[in-house]
Amino acid sequence: MDIKVLSELFEMGLYPVPVDWDINKKNVEKFPEYKTDIEDNGEYHSINDVSRWMQDLNKMNGLALRMKPPYFMFDFDLKNTNNKELFNQFLNIVKSTNEDVLRKVCIEKTRNGGYHIYSKFSKVEHKKPLAKSNENREVISIYTGGLLSFCYPTPGYELIHNELTDIEELTQDEFDMLCASCIYFNEYDDIELNRDSIIIEYPKEYEELALLFDLSCTDELFNELLESIDLYLIKNQRYNRKKYAAYLRKGSLADYSAKVYFGKVKKLLIMSGSFTDFPNFHSRISSDDHSWILTPTRFIYYKSKQDWITTIETIKFLCEQNDIEINKPIEQEQPKQDRSKFPFDIFPSALQLFISKQVIQHEYLAGGILAAVSTAIGNTCILEAMQGYIVKPILYMAIVAPPGASKTPALGKAFKPFQEYDAESYKHYKLELERYKEELQAYKASKNKSEPEPEAPPYYQVIIGDSTIEMISKILAVNQYGCCLLNDELIGFIKKMNKYSDTNDELEKWLSLWSGEPLLVQRVSRGIDKVDEPFCTIVGGVQPGVLTTLSANENEHNGFFHRFLFVYPQPQSKQEWQQINIPYEILNGYRNFIFGLLGMRKEVKYIYYMNEQADRLYKTWHDAKNKKYDSSQSDHIKGIIAKYQNYCLRFALIIQVMEDYNYRENCTVTQGAMEKAIRLTEYFLDNMLKAMKILTPESPVDKLLPAQQLLYNKLPQAFKLKTAIEIGESIGIKEATVKTFINRQKELFSQIARGSYEKTY
Length: 761
Known about the structure:
The chain is of the alpha+beta class.
């Protein structure tokens, strides 16, 4: 193996791995064992290690490529198709469309008679299938993201067009053209057009109108919508014999840019990556991701910059202009929504898909991810809701679930990228600490004290375990972009805080930290710690039976639990054991999203403002809540409304930053982000009202656990024990549990005869 070949490929950005290829077995016999000899940082134990590696390298006769974006290859696996002329047909299409693109790629023939087309495009992120056989076997795929590909000079592999060093970056049109030429050979239809395969449903308050429009939208109107983004029907082409209509973007060099299905079920599949406002074939996470299949409503939604209010207004306008009768009215300003359902569409599609593929109850995971995104944003973004009124995306969140309901695994999955991030930070910190110790030792041994004494390195962490306010202040002082106090069991943190609040101002500090106010901790024995821009999100799990700890003692009156968001769904039944294999692309999609936000921490602070439409929508919602505030006689209700009006602004900021991601040029909270924030706030208000029955019970019934409350409410005013047992069995409560419940709840039941009872509340 010529080391110059490896050097050239490394310089290109490819990652070559020399291999010992067994010609008879046609597989890899040996990889060079350089990883055990040379450390990751490039250091080696001795020159003998390098010599051994060089000798080992000379024995290698083949090459594997570990490709990472933007490099990728089109893999033609012809053994999976009966059409053995497929590759030649593909080349004919390319040559007749834009032959010049071939000078930018390298083509090789594989040992199995297949082909690899090596290329480069900046927007390629992960593996994706392009064409399958009728039997659902992959025939043409894009490979990238660290996968190994054996290539020339491995025996059996032959370069037939250009060298790897001839590869040049493709343009968007060239990439679209190559992909469209591949997709043309797809024989397998994995899209079930007779069902709505969109992963995230329409918001409840808009669902019926949206579905009616999807059914009522005419073919002519749908065609007009497509032409509004410069998509035009290709006439008299070979695609006409297929069950879809082929559309081409104006000015595109590709054979086609989109597939359109007409008839009763109208759907658009955009195959080009040049439509940046719309999900498309190239933005999907995996073959399981159907969020890129656009109905008429979803087409308008993305064209309206993901603003549901504008979407609904547009639908109503189109119906009037085209004499389409839809009788369902829509409550635009104050929609009557199902507040008990988490609005998963607040998240980008990669996060929605990550949640949808988990067996963990989705609400728990969604709550954890919302807190994780809050943490990742940290102090990098604030919202100036009005002049001088600054809002930070700090969240205090409790995930309420019974024991064994997977609230801890949900938080683990949501915060796994942070554990990886902190582990890398700690590794760097340990290296810096060793260097500091050496410098300090040299400084103390030196007689020259003209230079200042070396300072200990900071540890840049994001996740904080259970800790006192003194330690929190020290950690936040170093980590100016913000942290998260993550607790599997939130009650332990609350009890510790309550314990120390008897002797200091621990509780008051946490009340102030919720607002992001400057933190000042003064102790006689430990001096003064001051943090001007603290950011600390809190998230943890809590069991319903100990939820009252949040409102115990003075916490009932100081507004502490008013600051909390509660994820408190009806628990799902315990699921049976099963093996779940989530595609790597989906897992990596979430990881990359969080790391992308964390990567913005070294940038400047971004100040967001609400545009006129967002401000007007928030005012309508805010003022409606004010009426409930003024009419309420409960201090708890007043406190919760005030805090949640602020939370709505925080949610709007978080949602907008998720939509902007790493493009933060406009820094404007839009009407669409505010609409989602309002729906999310309503969800948490509904959960807060549910939690308040335990936090501030008005009757003994409010103190019951959810399952007990359900049983109590289903029981008639007077009943026999046999009836109670039957009702209990119908909702999954065992006979012994029902008997124990009735016998022990003396406040709730009185015995009127043997085996007969009456409810007292």
